[in-house]
Specification:
Length: about 280
């Protein structure tokens, strides 16, 4: 299998061009290639496929082999891959995902895509659609006890489920201890991605993320969107344009408010290409 390793703000995936390559068991392949010691090393696997309903299809798998419906950093890299490798010459493309068709605008410099702006669709706030177990129809700053500690969280879906928690300090957070406890908490029947947020100023937030199926990653595009929406809903920021500072870089989020789509802008980078497994 020929592959390309790419990342968006350090959220790295192995990309396979399924116009020419075939992956028979993507769940098992995702686990194998993601291993940072015995595999290629990544947060998961992303298959780029032909589509009947959009220009391309993105099919994504986490490092544990579970399927993700949407990936904000991954879809920007899909855009870079298809443009840089001549599968399209369009700078506005559509990509079919597990959470619908997304439209992407590509910024090109010297013949290569540098940044991509994605229409991520509207956030889903209804508890049962996220899904999150709750007595209320929405979960905005609700108490939750996780691993014996009390937190407040806001839940929403950006095509995948997110819990956003505001803290005074995220740098010293023992995320490898608390992250899995949120992921498997009984409130989240489909597990959850959890964003831990420190507010920096009225338009900037700092974020660490524990991703469902992959653990701590350096960035999460859907998570950055969820965090910006939660920051606006909880009046933590006053701007509708929010900069999200992640361990692997910075993402820009725009949201005009309820019923409106969220826009995600950020970089996409190719790291290397190869073949897996090696011939010899
Ligand atoms: N890193 C991604 C999200 C990947 C899927 C997620 N772990 C899930 O299972 O929902 C992003 O950039 O959005």
């Amino acid at each position: 299998m020929k592959f390309t390793k790419m990342h968006g703000c350090g959220n790295d995936y192995v990309y396979v061009n399924c116009f020419t390559e075939k992956v028979d068991h993507p769940e098992e392949t995702a686990i194998l290639v993601s291993d940072r010691h015995f595999g290629i090393g990544s947060d998961g696997l992303i298959l780029i496929k032909p589509s009947d309903v959009a220009d391309f299809e993105m099919d994504m798998y986490n490092a544990d082999g579970s399927r993700g419906a949407m990936c904000g950093n991954g879809i920007r890299c899909v855009a870079k891959y298809v443009y840089d490798n001549g599968l399209t010459d369009k700078t506005r493309i559509t990509v079919s995902t597990g959470s619908g068709i997304k439209t992407l605008d590509l910024s090109v410099e010297n013949g290569c895509v540098k940044t991509v702006r994605v229409n991520m669709g509207s956030p889903v706030l209804e508890a049962e659609k996220i899904p999150v177990v709750s007595d209320t129809s929405r979960v905005i700053s609700q108490p939750i006890t996780v691993a014996g500690k009390d937190f407040f969280y806001t839940a929403l879906s950006m095509g995948n489920p997110h819990a956003v928690v505001f803290l005074d300090d995220v740098e010293n957070l023992k995320i490898e201890e608390i992250g899995p406890e949120f992921e498997h908490h009984r409130n989240f029947p489909d597990r959850v991605n959890t964003e831990f947020i420190k507010v920096i100023d009225d338009h900037t937030i700092q974020m660490r993320v524990w991703e469902r199926g992959s653990g701590e990653t350096l960035a999460c595009g859907t998570g950055a969107c969820a965090a910006a929406v939660a920051s606006i809903l909880n009046h933590k920021v006053s701007s509708r344009k929010v900069s999200v500072l992640l361990r692997g870089g910075e993402l820009q989020i725009e949201w005009a408010g309820e019923g409106q789509p969220v826009y995600l802008t950020g970089p996409a980078v190719t790291v290397f290409t190869g073949e897996y497994p090696a011939g010899k």
